[in-house]
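We modelled the chain as a single entity of 293 amino acids. Its sequence is:
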Amino acid sequence: MSTLSSIISRFRNEVIYGGHITALIGPSFVLISIIILELPLNYTSLMVAYLIPLLVYSYNYQKELEIDKLTNSDKTRYLSDRNRVFPYLFYTYLILTIVLSVLINSLSFIIFLAIIFTGGILYTIIFKRLASIVPAFKNVFSTAVWAYSGTFFNIFLYSLTLDVMFIFLFVFIYLKIFINNVFFDIKDMATDKQEGLMTIPIMIGKKNTYYLLSLLNVISLIILIYSVYTSIVPLYTISLGVFSLYTQYYLIKGNSTAGKDLLKYTYIISDAEFILWPIALFIGKIMMNGTIF
């Protein structure tokens, strides 16, 4: 029984601290435009959309063990214990990504993936230094990578034309990921300050950060409503509006909690929002199509 408990505990820690929840955001964004445009499902590409962020975030987490020690001892303890096998894990993820990308057989798509992967890895190795010089660089850069990958993934995969729907998608994803990204930085204020990083929470303070994020949450909802009203996206896309309440919930709870309770809202609840997006969109599509026909 103790062995089973140990396996379950290790699996849970791997999912939470190994970057897997965050990595699931990748295929979730890909599914959004697949549902809206009624594109054929490509399961190989969904795996690639999962593996690319898993590579980037697992690498980042492993390289920043000492930094995370101050804010999340449980994560540091687990990843330190996993450190000896991490190179095997990383190269397994990498080889699998390369094989699946080659199977998709699209040079432009492979180049697109290479840009995302390189940008993500280089942030940890080089670009992070700019975050101590350029205000909010950490927030702006990482959000831009997510919005770029989430918007352009299917454009390169299916050789689609960039239109106003994808522009809406880019702006909407950017705002929502930016909120998520900055919310994460609230828990990292102590370590980011120690590193000299100029993140938004450090520059304007915790309370003002929550005000800013709440405002951006409202703006994202307004953009969604406008896009539905002007038929940029289908009517059922309004189902994503429920996540404005979801976001506001974790912002309010995050503002009134600290320590391990705050970690629950960052590592699990806030990231889970994006994993639920395609589910809500799919349900909304079924319900509204059922009403129409």
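As a brief sanity check on the tokenised model: The radius of gyration is 19 Å. The chain is about 80% helix and 0% strand.
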